[in-house]
Design a protein that fits this description.
heterodimer; A: alpha+beta; Thiol Ester Dehydrase, Chain A; 5-stranded antiparallel sheet; 5 strands; elongated; B: alpha+beta; 4 helices; 7 strands; about 20% helix; globular
């Protein structure tokens, strides 16, 4: 059911904060089906390819953090079946960072069966620097 | 992955619209558990995000000696994957372009499970000049 809160422009989504560790990054990478050293898991590969002295977290971890925040905001039935999420990555995320996903309802659009609710969202690190920005939406069903 | 059958990636040669083919894998409960642990989210369901469908499709076809950096992702969620089901992924090259003197390369993949349920569509914007990251974000000490 489309609650007023969900469809009201300016409504904030509840922030989600996650501590990024190399152990978590390695676990994430280990979920894949191709297993090889990469810029996320291996400092030497990161140094050779990126020129950094540290591996960086996959942007898909930020996508997943954002998905969690949006799933909690819209509810799993809406977000897991109609969710759309776009993120542009602005700066590296690495071990020791604490990433917080924040967002605001920016627009709504009536569609068959409900209201598509659009959210402007971003990820910040512990210094308040934006690491990613983007938009998301989900279909909120009519009651 | 059969190393010997992969093509050497050449940005100038790859064609927009090129099919990256299909592959199948089983999304196991162990993968889902590991994904949830990695994300500190016991209710996370799209462990497929960590499989990186589009990038995996690309890596199965190409040997990319340059590498790339993920500049952005677009994802559409349709149905949560069910552990124990096979997932079929089909990938393709969507676009390539230069922006601010950097080459970008866009790939996408669609995932469907063995029952024909659409799971997700993922698109990745890769910047194929990864050493730019170190130049811009070199660690301070």
């Amino acid at each position: 059911m489309a609650s007023t809160r969900l469809t009201e422009i300016g409504t904030e989504i509840s922030p989600v904060t996650r501590q990024v560790t190399q152990e978590k990054i390695n676990l994430f990478e280990d979920c894949g089906i191709l297993h090889h050293a990469n810029i996320h898991t291996n400092p030497e590969v990161a140094k050779r390819r990126l020129g950094t002295s540290y591996p960086i977290a996959s942007g898909r971890m930020s996508i997943t953090y954002a998905s969690e925040a949006l799933r909690k905001f819209f509810g799993p039935e809406a977000f897991n079946h109609t969710g759309v999420l776009n993120l542009k990555f602005l700066r590296p995320v690495k071990h020791g960072d604490a990433i917080t996903v924040k967002g605001l309802v920016s627009n709504t659009q009536e569609q068959d069966g409900g209201t598509r609710v659009f959210v402007d969202l971003w990820c910040e690190n512990q210094s308040g620097d934006k690491t990613a920005v983007g938009t998301a939406s989900a279909l909120v069903l009519r009651g | 992955m059969a190393e010997s059958t992969r093509k050497l990636f050449d940005y100038n040669e790859v064609q927009i619209g090129e099919e990256l083919g299909s592959y199948e894998y089983e999304l196991t409960q162990e993968m889902l558990d590991k994904f949830r642990q990695a994300m500190d989210d016991p209710e996370a369901v799209f462990a497929t995000l960590a499989v990186k469908h589009d990038a995996t499709a690309f890596q199965m076809v190409y040997d990319d000696q340059t590498g790339g950096v993920n500049a952005g992702n677009e994802v559409e969620f349709f149905n949560p994957p069910i552990p124990g089901k096979k997932i079929k992924v089909t990938g393709r090259v969507v676009d390539k372009y230069w922006r601010r003197d950097k080459p970008y390369f866009v790939i996408e993949a669609t995932a469907v499970d063995e029952d024909g349920r659409l799971i997700e569509k993922m698109r990745t914007y890769q910047m194929k000049k990864p050493d730019e990251v170190g130049k811009k974000w070199h660690p301070q000490g």
